[in-house]
Amino acid sequence: MRRYLLSSAIIILILSLFGAYFFNQYWIHRYDELIVRQAGIYRLDEKLVWSVIYEETFFRAWKIGGADEVGLMQVTPLVAREWAKETGFKEFEKQTAENVNEFLRDPERNIQVGCWYLEKLRQKYRGFPAEKAMTLAAYNAGASRVEEWTRDTDASKLSQNDFIERINISSTKAYVSSILKRYQEQTR
Q1: What pLDDT, on a 0 to 100 scale, did the predictor assign at position 20?
Q2: How far is CA 27 from CA 21, 32, 162, 186, in A?
Q3: How many CB atoms lie within 10 A of CB 145?
Q4: Contact 50, 32 (CB under 8 A)
Q5: pTM
Q6: From the first residue on, what is the mean pLDDT of each consecutive set of 10 residues in the chain (188 residues)?
Q7: Which phi and psi angles does 171 have, rounded to 5°?
Q8: Cα(166)–Cα(8) distance, rounded to whole angstroms?
Q9: Alpha carbon 21 to chain centroid distance?
Q10: Residue 89: predicted pLDDT
Q11: Interatomic CA distance for residues 97 and 84, integer angstroms
């Protein structure tokens, strides 16, 4: 009887571990198709977008941030309204004016607006050695902070590590470093 109970306990433990692993894989990859599609539209590396979402919300589409950021990529209502205006689609402008939180809770719209904003920020740093780090820092702390951290040097020549060292907000430095580490793990 003891052997039976012990064997049953071991089997249940093994099945639980495998189940947790497969559930985790499902959880972190369930938006991959949307990420690939929207990253492609905005000429972004889908692994970088995936890494941003991992860091921002761990793939929780319903998450609301401390500064009222919404959804997977923690998009602000202001950015969503700016995106809607730039698209020229009156329906998007109407939806973001009426209930921007509901609009941004839709995973596809959230990733679409988040990718648009990442690309918009990236335009200023394209081709720089620290392009990804600068874009991520601007996404997290604002483009004016990136300008502040590069004011006394030629930003187009700063290495990624040198730029990260200049970030004087510890949470932003950790944010950028964490995303870049996860991104590098994804590209191996």
Answers
A1: 67
A2: 10, 10, 35, 16
A3: 16
A4: yes
A5: 0.90
A6: 71 65 83 98 98 97 95 97 93 95 97 98 98 98 97 96 98 98 94
A7: -70, -35
A8: 56
A9: 22
A10: 87
A11: 9
In a 13 Å sphere around the CA of 63, the CA atoms on its Cβ side amount to 19
Concatenated DSSP letters for 27-89? HHHTTHHHHHHHHHHTT--HHHHHHHHHHHHTT-TT-B-TTS-BTTTTB-HHHHHHHHHHH--
Per-residue buried b or exposed e for 15-30, using 16+ beta carbons within 10 Å of the residue's own CB = eeeeeeeeeeeeeeee
Cβ atoms within 10 Å of 109's Cβ, excluding its own: 23
Asked whether the beta carbons of 118 and 125 are under 8 A apart, the reply is no
Report how far residue 40's alpha carbon sits from residue 115's, in angstroms, rounded to the nearest whole number.
Answer: 9
Q: For the chain, how many structural domains are there in total?
A: 1
What is d(CA 23, CA 83) in angstroms, rounded to the nearest whole number? 34
Provide the domain limits for residue 36: 2-186
Residue 28's CATH number: 1.10.530.10
How big is the chain, counted in residues?
188
What pLDDT, on the 0 to 100 scale, is given for residue 99? 96
Which pLDDT belongs to residue 172?
98
